[in-house]
Amino acid sequence: MHHTDQTNLWIKALILAFWAAVVAVGILSLLPVEALPSPLLNWWDKAQHALGFLVLATLGFAAFAKKTTLVAVWLAIYGMLIELAQAFTGWRYGDIMDWLSDLAGIALAMILLAVIQKYWPALFRV
């Protein structure tokens, strides 16, 4: 397998992982709280939001390396839409603080991306 074939395969895997994570977050966000699995760790709710969107943003930035701003904006809107959808479920409620925690996760991913680009630029050469 050539280098470009391996790179293309890696990018396709990242894109698939990103969209799978987006769908998983959407489904888990709209399930009744009782239907959710018990947390592995007893994390604070806002930290879970930030961590979830940190993962989404990191996957999105890796999958769509030339469109990181678009990914960040899209994820911010997605987080807002999840909170709005929760407000209409009858078993969940939308919370602006949850959305702000989502934004914090996205911002942390952007900082992480900037640090990686500064100190390990070779990771971004394709």
Describe this structure in words.
With 126 residues, the chain is mainly alpha-helical. It has one domain. Helices cover 72% and strands 0% of the residues. It is built from 4 helices and no strands. α1 packs antiparallel against α2, α2 packs antiparallel against α3 and α3 runs antiparallel to α4. The chain is elongated and about 50 Å long. The model has no long low-confidence stretch (mean pLDDT 88).
Indicate the percent of residues in helices. Answer: over 70%
β-sheet strand percentage: under 5%
The DSSP helix count reads: 4
Q: Report the major sheet.
A: none
Structural class: mainly alpha
Distance between the termini: 15 Å
The radius of gyration is 16 Å
Pick out the low-confidence regions.
none
Shape: elongated
Order of helices and strands: HHHH
Number of E-state strands: 0
Number of domains: 1
Q: What do the pLDDT scores average to?
A: 88
What's the helix and strand layout?
Blueprint: H1 3-30, H2 45-63, H3 68-87, H4 96-119
Summarize this structure as a short list of keywords or feature phrases.
single chain, 126 residues, mainly alpha, 4 helices
